[in-house]
Amino acid sequence: MNTHHAIERLCNDAERHRRCFYPSTEAERQAIYTRLRNGILVRPHRNIYARRTYWDAIPPPEKHRHIIRTLSQQYPQRVFADISAAAIFNLEYHWNLHQRQTIFIAASNGNSARVHGNVQRVFAKNPPICSVVRYQSSGRLRTVLLPNTTTGPATTAPSLPANAVIIDRVSVTSPARTLVDCGLHYPFTQTIAMFDSALRRGIVTREQILEICDTMQRDCGPVQRLLYYTNPLNENGGESFCYGTIIDEGFAVPELQHVFIAPQSPQGTLRVDFVWHTHDGRVIVLEFDGTDKYVNPSMTNKRGIRQVVHDERRREDFLKQAGVTTIIRVNYAEVEQRTPLTRKLLEANVPMARAHPFYERYTDVAGRVW
Fold first, then answer.
1. How far apart are CA 142 and CA 346, in angstroms?
2. d(CA 69, CA 17)
3. Please, how many CA atoms are within 13 Å of residue 354, restricted to the half-sphere of its CB?
4. Other C-beta atoms within 10 Å of 103: how many?
5. For residue 43, what are the CA distances in angstroms to 48, 58, 141, 206?
6. Crossing angle of the two packed helices 175-185 and 206-215, in degrees rounded to 10
7. What would the pLDDT profile of 220-244 be if each residue is shown by its tens digit?
8. CA–CA separation, 217 vs 240, rounded Å?
9. DSSP 3-state assignment of 23?
10. Are 115 and 121 in contact (CB under 8 A)?
11. How much is the pTM?
């Protein structure tokens, strides 16, 4: 197929700025339709397009951000909410939350219903709003979170450097409101990573989340539970997911990122993901192993799988010398399936939260865990 220079420019510009594109003339529209039929382009959303080879190579959260940035160009007054705002904040969460490919926008009236296609309103009367601004400064692409302003162009925002060139500006519900909406909408195990990452990055406080809960006219029990258990010491979304699943299965809350003194090890200390110090003197360690640990050169330090496994065994020996009685290893698939994780925890005799007063867990008046 002949090269259409205008479409090529649209594709290149969109990919450089990490967003999709849309036609502005009838000629561009017809050229896009032709390439769409031939499989060169894809249409991930109504009147939004991307080059197929580029689109297939990016992960679901980034695809979601591409669509939102493009919609923000088309509809500058829209305020994005729920998982759409979480994606723009670059919070960590389970990718399957994008299975329906729904875009959420805040609406101050009406109800939470679909506007058209895969756009859905989230009813929020006068929600706190902020702007996520991407700009170039000194040759680097940067992102800043700014409070919402109603006067003056975006380029006059005082928080931006004088030489800043704004790439795009997306209006979203505040981090606190976004977390409350997601906490009420999605399961505990899939949402706790959002809370952990938001607190870890310092873009929200527990008090701000509680203030939003006080304004809601619905039960915020799920959000209260998330706030009770969230822990920014979880270093990534995988650890948060494992941590949340352990709690959801009824086991005692582990201590995170505990450091053991191990004089025999090369470093002299060893830090573990999760540990339980039981009332009967046992020390149980759980290590969460991501797939990257074995295949990503940046994490294996260019070691082969055999060497990585050998180093793990040495690490386990050092941990046992430091007083650890039991070591559990789990991967993402085992956590996602839940049963393999639960079996390993039970076999290791990890205490249940409700089995002993030493591991107290809150329940409601009917005895149901929250």
1. 46
2. 10
3. 10
4. 23
5. 6, 15, 26, 39
6. 70
7. 999 999 999 999 999 999 999 999 9
8. 29
9. coil
10. yes
11. 0.84
